[in-house]
Amino acid sequence: MGRSRLFDSLLIANRGEIACRIMRTAKRLGIKTIAVYSEADARAPHVAMADQAVCIGKAASSDSYLRVDRIIDVIRATGAQAVHPGYGFLSENAVFADAVEAEGVAFVGPRGDAISAMGDKIESKKLAAAAGVDTIPGFLGVLRDADEAVKVAAEVGYPVMVKASAGGGGKGMRIAWNEAEARQGYELSSREAAASFGDDRIFIERYVERPRHIEIQVPPRLVRVRVRVRVRANLNPNPNPNPNPNPNFLLQLLADAHGNAVYLPERDCSIQRRNQKVIEEAPAPGLSAATVRTMGEQAVAPPISPYISLYLPISPYITCNPISRWASRRSRWPG
């Protein structure tokens, strides 16, 4: 087998700011860029910036940017050697990742099996635990009904977080302080999860009061690892009056297919509204170098990686390193 090499052409399966950012990086690397766009985006900046652009459907994303079949058609028509999904749209779609690689084209992102695993909180926590990462204690099985939820909550110890295994964005989550709230939380969370994600599976973990939400950037091609750690309950000397009810460290890594990985400086994202980050502060105040090092070392342990995240510009600014450039360099065309 010959040596793999950096690809010559890159299709960006996205639009807007992230598509433009990826294209700027690709151009600096001498890579031809191919845009896809909806009819409504015919005059969009990412279309004008690309070396080649192909329309893939009408304005609705369901008829354009989410159409795996049409993007695959563009790959074939243009001879694109690699595909970058950006964030959102198909970036966490395992079917898309597998379809791209089935064409013999490099996918600038994780394998389909990694996307599937990380899209499921129960499975991702099992993977993290197996890799030796500290996780919040809880029940890593699917709750059958409200009665089992009450039983498990008592075993885990109140307060607990009743949480959907699928999706994100704070949906399908309820804090329970007693049996009645655990029962109600199960019913409400399962219904919300079914409506939002088409998946009503629920599990329970211990609720960490007044945590800090600390993120570390680890520039597979891009790795995003959620690590929920008990110790962070003690990290906040001045607790936020509106604590984040979904405490976690979000660690992001730059890693390649050969087991090499590095993490970048941390960010404090504890100021949130409805489980959505409002302000990020970098570096995170009040964390010792030893704590950051421990978090980073745990971050590189699991073989996990979903996508370039929405707030990715922050790490390039504080490290003077464009992460999408590293991601592209670590993704090789098999031709």
Features:
335 residues, alpha/beta, Dna Ligase, domain 1, five-stranded parallel beta sheet, five-stranded mixed beta sheet, 33% helix, disordered C terminus
What does this structure look like?
Mean pLDDT is 78; it is low at 1-5, 219-249, 305-311 and 321-335. This protein has helices at residues 16-28, 45-49, 68-78, 94-102, 112-118, 121-130, 146-156, 179-197, 289-299, 314-319, 323-330; strands spanning 9-12, 32-38, 52-57, 82-84, 106-107, 138-139, 160-164, 173-176, 202-206, 214-216, 223-227, 249-255, 261-263, 266-268, 272-273, 276-277. The strands form 4 sheets. A 5-stranded parallel β-sheet has the order 3-2-1-4-5. 33% of the residues lie in helices and 19% in strands. Helix 4 (94-102) packs antiparallel against helix 5 (112-118) and helix 7 packs across helix 8 (179-197). The longest helix is centred in the middle third of the chain and has 19 residues, at 179-197. The chain has 335 residues and is of the alpha/beta class. It contains 11 helices and 16 strands. It has 3 domains: 9-108, 3-Layer(aba) Sandwich (Rossmann fold); 137-206, 2-Layer Sandwich (Dna Ligase, domain 1); 214-306, no CATH class.
